[in-house]
Amino acid sequence: MRTIKQVILTIATTTLLLGCGSTGEILLTPEENIDAIPLKVSDLTEAEKQNWGHLDLLVDTIPGMSVDKAYAEIIKSKKGKKVIVAVIDSGIDIDHEDLDANIWTNTDEKPGNGKDDDNNGYIDDVHGWNFLGDGYNEQLEYVRILASGNTSHPDYAAAKAEYESEYTKWTERKTQYDQIYQQIKGADDVLSQHFGKKDYTQKEVGAIKTEDQTLGQAKQVAQYMYSNGLESMADALEEVNNAIKSINERLNYNLNKDFKGRVNGDDPENMNSKFYGNGNVKPIKKDESHGTHVAGIIAAERNNGLGANGVANNVEIMSIRTVPNGDEYDKDVALAIRYAVDNGASIINGSFGKSFSPHSDWVRDAIAYASKNDVVFVHAAGNDSKNVDEKPNFPDDNINGQEVSNTYIRVGALAPKYGSGLLAGFSNYGKSNVDVFAPGAQVYSTTPENEYDTKGGTSMAAPAVAGVAALIRSYYPKLTAAQVKQIIMDSGLDINTKVIVGGNTDDIQPYKNIVKSGKIVNAYNALIMASKMAQ
């Protein structure tokens, strides 16, 4: 069954509506062993859907990271060391039933007394820090560049071109979705009147026999929705309405040159002020779910009978709320990285990114600071289906190809099917600037208020790798951050097949052409290699 988003995208690009138109134990697995296995051709079971990133390619024919195998055969009952993983994101529901036992607590800070007990500059930072304050919506970075009015800005021309293209695309999309909503609503009204009720069934719709053109068109619309996995017209209306809400947010906030989003009272252009925001690390809205989902991929409590299993046990999640609904500020990101390092994180997950970064040097200096302090920084490659060797995605760790860190790992996203469709179509890639790929499409994890959901993106692939890094640092704590990166890069499964790149079926290349390591991440192999390196 396709996802709701895929259904709506299909609706948005078709003229079918209303009848208007047509339409064994292996360390570095030899390539021949992988490419000799049968491809997974059947749909994933519900259990596989919720856990595919933890499965084993050779056993399950699903390109997971062999996490379950690692626990069963290597970790077993071993006791590891607690590892702090900082999640720089949109905030985390630290009270979630599947996360609450794995949240970092700053024991030097006394909650709620309004004092900076540990003298680190941040008052009541009990579980992390919130650099956004009460902020939520923000402009995209290129919109901020245009709004500044500084035509001499080195990125002004590129920002203007990007804005004009994106604004046109989203205004057209709004018109399209408004029309789709009216079509579905019109069909629903006709069918409700015909049946004399709103809760008519698929079977009842299928039984309609009529020569009335309007009723026939309404039946056609409803059956099209049903055929795409929607159970009712009410569901279809809700999903399209949610899409319209998202489009309106994009136009009203992210792409609005007149919108003033920063509400924390801080000047993002002045790096001298550092202690702004507050200690509330939770999302301020339920639909601000990204950070909670990311945290669950790393550290949802394992085997507790609840919704999801994280990759790593022995983890404490430090929440650093930095990523708004829009583009993050370079200053916030730079300070968030430094906060994580200074407060004991040994791994940082950054599931965010953008194409324009006016103060990329501030962030790059922070990444170098993390590296010098033995901290692994895992970053999502981005979801633009582009080659980041040719067009940058920030933050990055290099200046003209010269890396400033040997502990930065950039991660692309895999889909749950081995073969030509191995890469998630949305994932960025790059032979020089994307280090590895990991499970990122259709990932099941925690969301606010004790709920769970499936999301896709390189944002989901990065925390999978952060989880593997946490396993290594937990069970082999003497290894350095640079060694952890080396292990993750070198211990993955070699992939010899050709893959569709960037979702473009006309662009099929050997997997090794689009990623630095030529591998997909494998937790089982990583722990074996870590054991040997630790000796």
Distance between the termini: 48 Å
In CATH's first tier, which class of the largest domain applies?
Alpha Beta
Structurally, how many domains make up the residues? 2
Judged by helices, strands and strand pairing, the structural class is: alpha/beta
Number of helices: 16
Proper CATH architecture of the largest domain: 3-Layer(aba) Sandwich
- Using the alpha-carbon principal axes, give the shape: globular
Which runs of at least 5 residues are low in confidence (pLDDT < 50)?
A: 1-34
CATH topology of the largest domain: Rossmann fold
The helix fraction, in percent, is 25-40%
Gyration radius, in Å: 24 Å
Strand coverage percent: 5-15%
Mean of residue pLDDT values: 92
The CATH homologous superfamily name of the largest domain equals Peptidase S8/S53 domain
Largest pleated sheet:
7 strands, parallel
Q: Taking strands numbered 1, 2, ... along the chain, how are they ordered across the largest sheet?
A: 2-3-1-4-5-8-9
DSSP, total strands: 15
What can you tell me about this protein's structure?
There is one protein chain. With 535 residues, this protein is α/β, with parallel strands linked by helices. The chain has two domains: 1-23 and 142-260, no CATH class; 55-138 and 268-534, Peptidase S8/S53 domain (Rossmann fold). The protein contains 16 helices and 15 strands. The strands form five sheets. A seven-stranded parallel β-sheet has the order 2-3-1-4-5-8-9, sandwiched between helices. It has a two-stranded antiparallel ribbon with strand order 6-7. Strands 10-11 form a two-stranded antiparallel ribbon. A hairpin with a 2-residue loop joins strand 6 (398-399) and strand 7. The radius of gyration is 24 Å and the shape is globular.
